[in-house]
Amino acid sequence: MGLREYMNSLFPKPPSDKEINLRRQKTVCAILSRYSEGNINLNRAKYVSEKSANGLKKKALSYHFK
Amino acid sequence: MDRMPSPSGETEEIATLFEKAESRIKALELLHNEGLFYHPVNQLRYAGYHIVNAIKNTDSDEQAEEWKRAKRHCQRAIYDASEMALVYCLAEVDGFKKDYKNVDVAPTVSNYLEIIGMARSAQVLIESVNHESREEKYNECDDLFSKLKPQIDRLNDARPELNKRLRSQRRNLFLISSALIVSILALIVA
Question: What are the structural domain ranges in chain B?
Fold first, then answer.
């Protein structure tokens, strides 16, 4: 963890729109990769590895909501 | 047209499934990101291909097989669109929860606990296997999505307000920490 990440974890800052959009794009890519089983080749799919795409549903089901 | 018409019950069923898939794809389109609907649209494209083959085919066995394939693709489009929408919503709720783990969300989003409960229900529903049919399960997924989607919008609407609170919290924490460090240094020097 770099100094910047450490300071951000000490003093949490709100996420920027860019960060939120990037996260959403990654989610979309992972969902697409997971469900299309490689049938859809999108340039955007470069954001996620096959392993993380396959693990997405499992991950979504393991989110801890309390 | 001298082509052999398919049994009307089958075409009607496929037409209903196709419309249902189309409406679920529409719901996916309206989510925050473009692109999530590519996969179910692709399934509908396959369904269209088999429908055309069925219309063109004169052999009744082959025609029946093509209708069956078209039906399977329509169903796959419906099932996947329903589940993908819920999985996306779960990721959104989880992202929100992580972003504002240090802020009290309840004063801004009064039904926050209800939203978390809905997310948990979505997880249970996706995992569940004790439904009479897959169709029943994915209808439930669709119902839950239509309830969860406005709540996700509500969470996103609350972000600017929560960001202000997070910034002020960050500033206060920074000032307190700085004051503490300066005091300790002053004590050491004295």
Answer: 8-189
Over residues B169-188, the mean pLDDT reads: 89
Give the span between the Cα atoms of A31 and A47, in whole angstroms.
12
Q: Within an 8 Å CB–CB cutoff, is residue B72 touching chain A?
A: no
- Cβ atoms A12, B102 nearer than 8 A: yes
How far, rounded to the nearest angstrom, does the alpha carbon of residue B128 sit from its chain's CA centroid?
17
Residue B3 reports pLDDT greater than 70: no
Under the banding of pLDDT at 50, 70 and 90, the label for residue A51 is low
Of residues A24, A31, A42, nearest to B87 (C-beta): A31
Determine the Cα angle at A12 with ends A10 and A14, to 5°.
Answer: 170
Q: Which chain B residues touch A56 with a CB distance below 8 Å?
A: 87
Q: Residue B31 contacts by C-beta under 8 Å, 6 or more apart in sequence?
A: B85, B88, B149
Q: Do B170 and A13 touch (CB under 8 A)?
A: yes
**Partner B contacted by A43 (CB < 8 A):** no
- Convert the pLDDT of each residue in A11-40 to its tens digit: 778 889 888 988 888 888 788 877 876 555
Check pLDDT > 90 for residue B17: yes
Contact between chains at A39 and B91 (C-beta distance less than 8 A):
no
